[in-house]
């Protein structure tokens, strides 16, 4: 009944704001146009279409607002008037009352707000679907930003997620193609991310980790968290001064190199994904600013760390090889990687998959970002994947969303940006570090603590091995020695193969260096 009630609310909101009319208005068939006229009879839809869509998403709640935020970065897919309205969802969602925010802050810390801050600005500087931010000054004079969680968010999100899980079960039950998409696992991933976003202490921890990871890059700034003033419902952080990245005219007037900014954004994204396996997964323009202060001029400022993505070593290696193969136009290797990873059935013909991938990707190389759409590439890849029963990987859904955000951001900053050539050198360096001598030494250092624990035990184990044994023990030892010899021969063979591989790799690198 709760699901039914929520569905009624969704349908009522769709009809009230005329989203059904918006969905059908793009069709040119006569019957569809007649249907549009019929469904709009008696309804007053005089607001602009972008405003109707934005208000409907705001009314439906946080999950729908998140969807609108993602859409707002895709100006290549949306009319400009709709994209401009949806951009308001990034940090201008209607705020909750300032008096309520004060109460929530005082309740979180158990003190009057005057005892915590020398000043606290009542009007929020930013208001999003999950929380809103107020500027304040501490007693010691430090300027800070106070993020306050919206009240009642948990119940709203749980209701929508419950409805999504029900719909996912229906999709899996009645659609073979739906089962391939793993909708329940995707909803489960979405569930985890949204509930993580409702715990602001987790967001503060995400920010601290990203701050450490990015410390040596000198391309992005992340606010420091004040841990003594962080609770699940309220967090206090260093105040950052920057210009929103959407205000490109203001940035250009300040002397910021916009083209370099676009390239730096790609570098930051690929560094977080492939080097660290820990990336900011909510990179819409409302969460990105640029510093124009002299000491940090031209650096990105990242905000809002409620949603981050993580990748395992397997995921990183697989994705990097895929990207590198794409950039080298080695479509056969891309197809082989899909088979090796188990993403397609083992009976799949590599040559057929290779041909399908080539047909999708080849038309988009050597073209600037303004002439291609990664969203359209992904859509065509998705259509091709249906033919080969490619299984969608739920753990990569956030990465796909973030990649679309990065492309949308790059398209706004520098439409002439060559995404492929910008990313390719970084991936090649990263792969060399992984499989070259640096990677070997790095992994050796990581394993060193285990060796240190084993080495002191070797004399005792050797002494025990040399002690006289009973006849039964002796027979058992002899049997074990026979098995050990077999194992040793196998290990020697593997070691020789490994040494041969390393020597071959070194010779190849040396020859490549001199050539």
Multimerization status: single chain
| Major beta-sheet overview | 6 strands, antiparallel
Number of helices in the DSSP assignment? 23
What is the structural class? alpha+beta
Shape: globular
Helical residue percent?
A: 55-70%
Question: Which radius of gyration do the C-alpha atoms yield?
Answer: 28 Å
Number of strands: 12
Mean pLDDT comes to 77
Strand content: 5-15%
User: Uncertain segments of ≥5 residues (pLDDT<50)?
Assistant: none
Distance between the termini: 72 Å
What features would you describe in this structure?
- The protein has 515 residues and is an alpha+beta fold.
- Among the domains are: 88 residues, no CATH class; 41 residues; 181 residues, no CATH class; 48 residues.
- Helix content is 61%, strand content 9%.
- α15 crosses α20.
- It is globular and about 95 Å long.
């Amino acid at each position: 009944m709760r699901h039914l009630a929520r569905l009624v609310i969704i349908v009522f909101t769709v009809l009230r704001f005329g989203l059904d009319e918006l969905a059908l208005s793009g069709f040119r068939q006569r019957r569809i146009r007649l249907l549009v006229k019929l469904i709009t009879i008696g309804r007053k839809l005089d607001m602009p279409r972008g405003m109707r869509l934005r208000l409907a998403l705001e009314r439906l709640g946080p999950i729908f607002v998140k969807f609108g935020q993602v859409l707002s970065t895709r100006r290549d897919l949306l009319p400009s008037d709709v994209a401009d309205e949806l951009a308001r969802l990034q940090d201008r969602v209607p705020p909750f009352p300032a008096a309520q925010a004060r109460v929530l802050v005082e309740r979180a810390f158990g003190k009057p707000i005057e005892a915590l801050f020398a000043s606290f600005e009542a009007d929020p500087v930013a208001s999003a679907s999950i929380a809103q931010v107020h500027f304040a000054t501490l007693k010691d004079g430090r300027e800070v930003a106070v993020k306050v969680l919206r009240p009642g968010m948990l119940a709203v999100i749980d209701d929508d997620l419950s409805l999504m899980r029900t719909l996912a079960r229906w999709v899996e039950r009645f659609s073979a193609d739906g089962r391939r998409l793993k909708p329940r696992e995707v909803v489960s991933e979405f569930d985890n991310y949204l509930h993580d976003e409702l715990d602001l202490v987790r967001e503060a921890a995400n920010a601290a980790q990203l701050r450490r990871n990015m410390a040596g890059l000198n391309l992005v700034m992340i606010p420091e968290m004040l841990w003594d003033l962080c609770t699940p419902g309220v967090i206090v952080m260093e105040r950052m001064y920057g210009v929103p990245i959407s205000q490109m005219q203001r940035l250009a007037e300040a002397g910021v190199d916009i083209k370099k900014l676009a390239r730096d954004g790609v570098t930051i994204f690929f560094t977080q994904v492939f080097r660290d396996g820990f990336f900011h997964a909510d990179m819409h323009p409302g969460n990105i600013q640029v510093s124009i202060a002299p000491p940090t001029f031209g650096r990105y400022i990242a905000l809002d760390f409620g949603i981050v993505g993580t990748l395992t070593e397997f995921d990183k290696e697989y994705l990097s090889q895929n990207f590198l193969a794409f950039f080298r136009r080695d479509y056969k290797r891309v197809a082989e990687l899909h088979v090796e990873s188990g993403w397609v059935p083992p009976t799949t013909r590599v040559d057929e998959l290779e041909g399908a991938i080539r047909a999708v990707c080849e038309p988009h190389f050597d073209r600037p970002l303004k002439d291609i759409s990664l969203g359209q590439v992904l859509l065509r890849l998705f259509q091709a994947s249906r033919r080969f029963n490619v299984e969608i990987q739920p753990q990569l859904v956030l990465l796909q969303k973030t990649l679309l955000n990065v492309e949308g951001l790059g398209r706004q900053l520098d439409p002439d940006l060559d995404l492929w050539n910008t990313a390719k050198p970084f991936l090649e360096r990263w792969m060399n570090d992984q499989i070259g001598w640096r990677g070997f030494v790095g992994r050796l250092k990581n394993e060193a603590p285990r060796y240190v624990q084993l080495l002191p035990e070797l004399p005792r184990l050797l002494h025990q091995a040399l002690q006289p044994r009973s006849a039964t023990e002796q027979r058992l030892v002899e049997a074990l020695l026979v098995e050990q010899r077999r194992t040793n021969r196998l290990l020697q063979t593997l070691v020789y193969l490994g040494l041969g591989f390393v020597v071959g790799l070194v010779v190849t690198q040396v020859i490549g260096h001199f050539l």
